[in-house]
Amino acid sequence: MTAARLPSVSAERGVQTPETSPEAEADGAGRSRLGGVGVLLALAFVLVAIGCWHLTQGTSGAVFANAEILAGSRIPRLAAGTAVGVALGVAGVLLQSLARNALASPDTLGVTAGSYLAVTAVAAFGIAVPVWASGAVAFAGGIIAAGIVLGLAGGAGSSTTRLILAGSALALAFQACTSTLLVLFDEETKGLFAWGSGSLSQLGLDAFLQSAPVVVVVTIIALVLSRRLDVLALGDDTASSLGVPIRSTRVVGILLAVVLIAVSVTLAGPMGFVGLCAPVLARLLARVVPSLHRHVLLIPVSGLLGAIVVILSDALLRAIIGAEAAIAVPTGVATTLLGAVVLVLMARRLRDSGPTREPPKVRFGVRSERRFRLVLVIAVAALAGAVLLGLLAGSTWLLTGDIALWMHGDASPLISFSLDERAPRVVAAAVAGGALALSGGVFQAVSRNPLADPGILGVTGGAGLGAVLVVTSAVASTAGMIAAALVGSLLAFALVYGLAWRRGLNADRFILIGIGVSYGTTALTTFFLLRANPWDTPKIYTWLSGTTYGRVWDQVIPVVIVLAIALPLIFAARRELDVMSLDEDTPRLVGISLERTRLWLLLLAAVLASFSVAAVGVIGFVGLVAPHAARALVGSRHSRVIPVSVVLGAVLVALADTLGRTIILPAQLPAGLIVALLGAPYFVWLLWRSRDA
Question: Which domains are delineated in the chain?
Answer without folding.
Answer: 74-347 (1.10.3470.10), 392-689 (1.10.3470.10)
